[in-house]
Amino acid sequence: MIRKTTLTLGSLICSVFFLTMYSLATADAVPKFTIYTENYKPYNFEKDGKIQGIAVELLTQMLEKAGSSQTLADIKLVPWARGYDAVQKNEKTLLFSITRTEEREDLFKWVCPIKTITEELWALKPIFVGRQHNILKTLIAK
């Protein structure tokens, strides 16, 4: 018999857009952002020289609805560490998609969730994994 064990990482883990210092919709003109993303299929990736994906489509729609002049051409596909570093050091910088964690909660202005992630581990009935940190100990034969 197979038993399903659901492990939730943190209280809320989801991929989200976030901004530093400003929100997209302001009473005045919409500010221009430096926009970064990484290669993370199916949310954001490059194909045939064009950045695309679920999150890319969502962001471009948000920019359009906010009255921004920015487009797909303004999105820079960079390694994760470079985008994460840039968004922490520079104002008016946007990074998407990112996992929302307790440690990052107060660092950024979170705009909207894209997907809630639940990780599952399947095992035969006799195997019981009590806590997340016991997984390797339980599954590796001695």
- Please tell me the total number of domains: 1
State the helical fraction.
10-25%
- The arrangement of helices and strands along the chain is EEEEEHEHEEEH
- Total number of β-strand segments? 9
Q: Tell me the radius of gyration.
A: 19 Å
| Shape designation | elongated
CATH class call: Alpha Beta
List keywords for this structure.
disordered N terminus, D-Maltodextrin-Binding Protein, domain 2, 3 helices, alpha/beta, single chain, two-stranded antiparallel sheet, five-stranded mixed β-sheet, 142 residues
Structure overview:
The chain has about 140 residues and is α/β, with parallel strands linked by helices. The chain has one domain (about 15-120): 3-Layer(aba) Sandwich (D-Maltodextrin-Binding Protein, domain 2), CATH 3.40.190. The protein has three helices and nine strands; from the N terminus they run E-E-E-E-E-H-E-H-E-E-E-H. A five-stranded mixed beta sheet has the order 6-3-7-2-8, with helices on both faces. A two-stranded antiparallel ribbon has the order 1-9. A two-stranded antiparallel ribbon has the order 4-5. A hairpin with a 2-residue loop joins strand 4 (about 45) and strand 5. The radius of gyration is 19 Å and the shape is elongated. It starts with a strand and ends with a helix. The model is unreliable at about 1-25 (pLDDT under 50).
